[in-house]
Amino acid sequence: MGHTLTFEVPEKVYNSLRKSAAHIGQLPEVLAANLLAEATERLENDPLEEFIGTLKGSIPNWADHHDQYIGKSLNEMTRSGLL
User: Is the same domain home to 68 and 40?
Assistant: First the structure.
């Protein structure tokens, strides 16, 4: 069963969404719903979720941005030849 959501996004976000949707032949609303579904799926199936709060560290927003930090670290390791 689907639900209807109505919300406003900034002009910049809408224009980007509209262009991306046109590029792949979808309506902006369909693309937005798909992106929201993908984001929700990632949040629900985050493999590091069970570790949040179990480690002490000096990065206050680690729980919210761990994917970016891991990606940055992997990128640096790849560039340095460690991977």
Answer: no
